[in-house]
Amino acid sequence: ELADTPLAVRGLRKTYKDGFVAVRGTSFTVEPGQVVGLLGPNGAGKTTTLRMVLGLIRPTAGEALLFGHRAGPGAPVLSRIGALVEGPGFLPHLSGLDNLTLYWKATGRPLDDARVAEVLDIADLGDAIHRRVRAYSHGMRQRLAIAQAMLGLPDLLILDEPTDGLDPPQIAEMRRVLQRYATDGRAVLVSSHLLAEVEQTCTHVVVMRRGELVAAGPVAEIIGDSPSVLVGVTDP
Ligand code: ATP
Protein backbone atom coordinates (compact mmCIF):
# COMPACT_ATOMS: atom_id res chain seq x y z
CA GLU A 1 0.00 0.00 0.00
CA LEU A 2 1.64 3.22 -1.24
CA ALA A 3 0.37 5.36 1.65
CA ASP A 4 2.46 3.16 3.96
CA THR A 5 5.60 3.41 1.83
CA PRO A 6 7.76 6.31 3.06
CA LEU A 7 9.26 6.83 -0.39
CA ALA A 8 8.54 5.45 -3.85
CA VAL A 9 10.72 6.88 -6.64
CA ARG A 10 9.64 6.03 -10.18
CA GLY A 11 11.51 6.91 -13.34
CA LEU A 12 12.91 10.06 -11.81
CA ARG A 13 14.93 12.09 -14.29
CA LYS A 14 16.57 15.52 -14.22
CA THR A 15 17.96 17.47 -17.15
CA TYR A 16 19.44 20.79 -16.06
CA LYS A 17 18.95 23.95 -18.14
CA ASP A 18 22.35 23.54 -19.76
CA GLY A 19 21.18 20.17 -21.10
CA PHE A 20 23.20 18.12 -18.64
CA VAL A 21 21.34 14.96 -17.57
CA ALA A 22 22.13 14.55 -13.86
CA VAL A 23 19.64 11.72 -13.14
CA ARG A 24 18.67 9.29 -15.89
CA GLY A 25 15.42 7.70 -14.77
CA THR A 26 15.93 6.14 -11.37
CA SER A 27 13.47 4.00 -9.39
CA PHE A 28 13.66 2.67 -5.85
CA THR A 29 11.66 2.53 -2.63
CA VAL A 30 12.29 3.12 1.05
CA GLU A 31 10.15 0.95 3.32
CA PRO A 32 9.44 1.38 7.07
CA GLY A 33 12.39 0.37 9.26
CA GLN A 34 14.92 0.49 6.41
CA VAL A 35 18.12 2.53 6.43
CA VAL A 36 18.74 3.06 2.74
CA GLY A 37 22.12 4.29 1.54
CA LEU A 38 22.23 6.28 -1.70
CA LEU A 39 25.76 5.42 -2.75
CA GLY A 40 27.87 6.92 -5.52
CA PRO A 41 30.90 9.09 -6.21
CA ASN A 42 30.74 12.88 -6.40
CA GLY A 43 28.61 13.92 -9.34
CA ALA A 44 26.60 10.66 -9.43
CA GLY A 45 23.37 12.56 -8.97
CA LYS A 46 22.67 11.85 -5.31
CA THR A 47 21.99 15.44 -4.28
CA THR A 48 19.88 16.04 -7.38
CA THR A 49 17.83 12.93 -6.54
CA LEU A 50 17.28 14.01 -2.92
CA ARG A 51 16.33 17.53 -3.97
CA MET A 52 13.70 16.13 -6.35
CA VAL A 53 12.40 13.78 -3.66
CA LEU A 54 11.92 16.75 -1.33
CA GLY A 55 10.26 18.89 -3.99
CA LEU A 56 13.08 21.45 -3.92
CA ILE A 57 13.58 21.07 -7.67
CA ARG A 58 11.18 19.79 -10.28
CA PRO A 59 11.87 16.46 -12.00
CA THR A 60 12.10 16.48 -15.80
CA ALA A 61 10.26 13.15 -15.77
CA GLY A 62 9.01 10.60 -13.28
CA GLU A 63 7.85 11.19 -9.74
CA ALA A 64 8.75 10.73 -6.11
CA LEU A 65 5.94 9.84 -3.73
CA LEU A 66 6.28 10.40 0.01
CA PHE A 67 3.67 8.24 1.74
CA GLY A 68 1.76 8.30 -1.54
CA HIS A 69 1.99 12.08 -2.05
CA ARG A 70 4.18 14.26 -4.22
CA ALA A 71 6.45 16.52 -2.21
CA GLY A 72 6.18 20.27 -2.45
CA PRO A 73 5.01 23.28 -0.50
CA GLY A 74 1.94 22.45 1.55
CA ALA A 75 2.20 18.72 0.94
CA PRO A 76 0.09 16.90 3.54
CA VAL A 77 2.96 14.60 4.50
CA LEU A 78 5.61 17.21 5.27
CA SER A 79 5.25 16.72 9.02
CA ARG A 80 6.24 13.06 8.54
CA ILE A 81 9.51 13.97 6.79
CA GLY A 82 12.71 15.35 8.27
CA ALA A 83 15.57 16.40 6.03
CA LEU A 84 19.07 17.75 5.99
CA VAL A 85 20.21 18.57 2.47
CA GLU A 86 22.00 21.82 3.10
CA GLY A 87 23.93 22.82 6.19
CA PRO A 88 21.53 24.74 8.41
CA GLY A 89 22.73 28.12 9.63
CA PHE A 90 23.01 27.98 13.39
CA LEU A 91 23.33 31.09 15.51
CA PRO A 92 26.80 30.62 17.01
CA HIS A 93 26.23 32.72 20.12
CA LEU A 94 23.20 30.66 21.16
CA SER A 95 23.31 27.20 22.72
CA GLY A 96 22.50 24.12 20.65
CA LEU A 97 19.22 23.72 22.50
CA ASP A 98 18.24 27.36 21.95
CA ASN A 99 18.99 26.94 18.24
CA LEU A 100 16.76 23.86 18.04
CA THR A 101 13.97 25.58 19.97
CA LEU A 102 14.13 28.65 17.76
CA TYR A 103 14.01 26.51 14.62
CA TRP A 104 11.04 24.53 15.88
CA LYS A 105 9.09 27.65 16.85
CA ALA A 106 9.42 28.82 13.24
CA THR A 107 7.67 25.64 12.06
CA GLY A 108 4.61 26.65 14.06
CA ARG A 109 4.22 23.13 15.43
CA PRO A 110 3.92 22.57 19.20
CA LEU A 111 7.13 21.69 21.01
CA ASP A 112 6.93 18.36 22.82
CA ASP A 113 9.57 18.22 25.57
CA ALA A 114 9.53 14.42 25.72
CA ARG A 115 10.27 14.28 22.00
CA VAL A 116 13.07 16.78 22.29
CA ALA A 117 14.60 14.73 25.11
CA GLU A 118 14.33 11.57 23.00
CA VAL A 119 15.97 13.23 20.01
CA LEU A 120 18.80 14.66 22.12
CA ASP A 121 19.34 11.19 23.50
CA ILE A 122 19.41 9.63 20.02
CA ALA A 123 21.80 12.32 18.74
CA ASP A 124 23.97 11.85 21.86
CA LEU A 125 24.74 15.53 22.28
CA GLY A 126 24.98 15.26 26.06
CA ASP A 127 25.58 18.38 28.14
CA ALA A 128 27.07 20.13 25.12
CA ILE A 129 23.51 20.96 24.08
CA HIS A 130 23.68 23.79 26.66
CA ARG A 131 26.94 25.19 25.29
CA ARG A 132 27.18 27.83 22.59
CA VAL A 133 27.32 26.41 19.07
CA ARG A 134 30.45 28.53 18.50
CA ALA A 135 32.34 26.06 20.71
CA TYR A 136 31.15 22.96 18.80
CA SER A 137 33.42 20.72 16.73
CA HIS A 138 32.37 19.96 13.15
CA GLY A 139 31.09 16.56 14.28
CA MET A 140 29.01 18.13 17.04
CA ARG A 141 27.54 20.65 14.62
CA GLN A 142 26.62 17.84 12.27
CA ARG A 143 24.89 15.94 15.07
CA LEU A 144 23.02 19.12 16.03
CA ALA A 145 21.93 19.49 12.40
CA ILE A 146 20.73 15.86 12.38
CA ALA A 147 18.96 16.43 15.70
CA GLN A 148 17.18 19.38 14.09
CA ALA A 149 16.01 17.18 11.22
CA MET A 150 14.86 14.55 13.75
CA LEU A 151 13.00 16.95 16.06
CA GLY A 152 9.50 15.93 15.07
CA LEU A 153 10.54 12.24 15.08
CA PRO A 154 9.61 12.04 11.37
CA ASP A 155 8.74 8.66 9.88
CA LEU A 156 11.28 9.31 7.12
CA LEU A 157 14.59 11.08 7.67
CA ILE A 158 16.49 12.21 4.55
CA LEU A 159 20.15 13.19 4.91
CA ASP A 160 22.62 14.31 2.25
CA GLU A 161 26.18 13.20 3.07
CA PRO A 162 25.88 13.71 6.84
CA THR A 163 29.41 12.38 7.43
CA ASP A 164 31.05 14.72 4.93
CA GLY A 165 34.18 16.14 6.55
CA LEU A 166 33.94 13.97 9.68
CA ASP A 167 36.82 11.91 11.05
CA PRO A 168 36.44 8.13 11.64
CA PRO A 169 35.33 8.35 15.32
CA GLN A 170 32.74 10.99 14.37
CA ILE A 171 31.57 8.80 11.45
CA ALA A 172 31.16 5.87 13.84
CA GLU A 173 29.11 8.08 16.17
CA MET A 174 26.92 9.20 13.27
CA ARG A 175 26.35 5.54 12.36
CA ARG A 176 25.10 4.83 15.88
CA VAL A 177 22.83 7.88 15.74
CA LEU A 178 21.19 6.70 12.50
CA GLN A 179 20.81 3.14 13.74
CA ARG A 180 19.24 4.33 16.99
CA TYR A 181 16.86 6.48 14.95
CA ALA A 182 15.68 3.68 12.63
CA THR A 183 13.58 1.85 15.20
CA ASP A 184 9.81 1.72 15.68
CA GLY A 185 9.43 1.52 11.90
CA ARG A 186 11.16 4.84 11.23
CA ALA A 187 13.07 4.91 7.95
CA VAL A 188 16.24 6.73 6.86
CA LEU A 189 17.52 7.65 3.39
CA VAL A 190 21.15 8.76 3.55
CA SER A 191 23.58 9.59 0.76
CA SER A 192 27.27 8.74 0.90
CA HIS A 193 30.24 8.27 -1.38
CA LEU A 194 31.83 5.77 1.00
CA LEU A 195 31.14 2.08 0.40
CA ALA A 196 32.32 0.97 3.86
CA GLU A 197 30.08 3.52 5.53
CA VAL A 198 26.98 2.30 3.69
CA GLU A 199 27.94 -1.31 4.32
CA GLN A 200 28.22 -0.70 8.06
CA THR A 201 25.27 1.65 8.51
CA CYS A 202 22.55 0.67 6.05
CA THR A 203 20.13 -2.21 5.57
CA HIS A 204 19.61 -1.41 1.88
CA VAL A 205 21.59 0.36 -0.80
CA VAL A 206 20.83 2.23 -4.03
CA VAL A 207 23.96 2.53 -6.15
CA MET A 208 24.28 5.41 -8.63
CA ARG A 209 26.95 6.26 -11.17
CA ARG A 210 26.81 9.19 -13.60
CA GLY A 211 23.11 9.63 -13.06
CA GLU A 212 22.27 5.99 -13.60
CA LEU A 213 20.93 3.49 -11.12
CA VAL A 214 23.49 0.68 -11.06
CA ALA A 215 21.93 -1.62 -8.46
CA ALA A 216 19.46 -1.55 -5.58
CA GLY A 217 18.60 -4.00 -2.82
CA PRO A 218 19.64 -5.33 0.58
CA VAL A 219 23.24 -4.42 1.49
CA ALA A 220 24.17 -8.07 1.98
CA GLU A 221 23.05 -8.87 -1.58
CA ILE A 222 24.40 -5.86 -3.41
CA ILE A 223 27.64 -5.18 -1.59
CA GLY A 224 28.29 -8.67 -0.24
CA ASP A 225 27.78 -10.81 -3.33
CA SER A 226 28.29 -8.63 -6.37
CA PRO A 227 31.19 -6.28 -5.78
CA SER A 228 31.63 -6.02 -9.55
CA VAL A 229 28.65 -3.65 -9.82
CA LEU A 230 30.54 -1.33 -7.53
CA VAL A 231 33.65 -0.95 -9.68
CA GLY A 232 34.17 2.73 -10.32
CA VAL A 233 31.32 3.64 -8.04
CA THR A 234 33.11 4.57 -4.86
CA ASP A 235 36.12 6.69 -4.15
CA PRO A 236 39.28 4.82 -3.12
P1 ATP B 1 28.14 15.47 -4.81
O1 ATP B 1 28.55 14.49 -3.76
O2 ATP B 1 29.30 16.16 -5.49
O3 ATP B 1 27.07 16.43 -4.39
P2 ATP B 1 26.10 14.11 -6.21
O4 ATP B 1 26.08 12.66 -6.49
O5 ATP B 1 25.24 14.60 -5.12
O6 ATP B 1 27.56 14.56 -5.96
P3 ATP B 1 24.81 16.07 -7.83
O7 ATP B 1 25.13 17.19 -6.93
O8 ATP B 1 23.42 15.60 -7.90
O9 ATP B 1 25.76 14.84 -7.56
O10 ATP B 1 25.29 16.50 -9.29
C1 ATP B 1 25.21 15.61 -10.38
C2 ATP B 1 25.75 16.30 -11.59
O11 ATP B 1 24.87 17.37 -11.97
C3 ATP B 1 27.12 16.94 -11.39
O12 ATP B 1 27.92 16.65 -12.51
C4 ATP B 1 26.83 18.41 -11.27
O13 ATP B 1 27.89 19.18 -11.80
C5 ATP B 1 25.59 18.58 -12.12
N1 ATP B 1 24.74 19.68 -11.65
C6 ATP B 1 24.28 19.87 -10.39
N2 ATP B 1 23.52 20.97 -10.31
C7 ATP B 1 23.50 21.52 -11.55
C8 ATP B 1 22.86 22.67 -12.13
N3 ATP B 1 22.12 23.49 -11.41
N4 ATP B 1 23.08 22.88 -13.46
C9 ATP B 1 23.84 22.05 -14.20
N5 ATP B 1 24.44 20.95 -13.72
C10 ATP B 1 24.28 20.69 -12.42
UniProtKB/TrEMBL annotation:
The chain holds residues 609 to 844 of 913 of the full protein. This is ABC transporter ATP-binding protein. Belongs to the ABC transporter superfamily. Residues 7-235 form the ABC transporter domain. It comes from Actinocatenispora thailandica. It comes from the Bacteria.
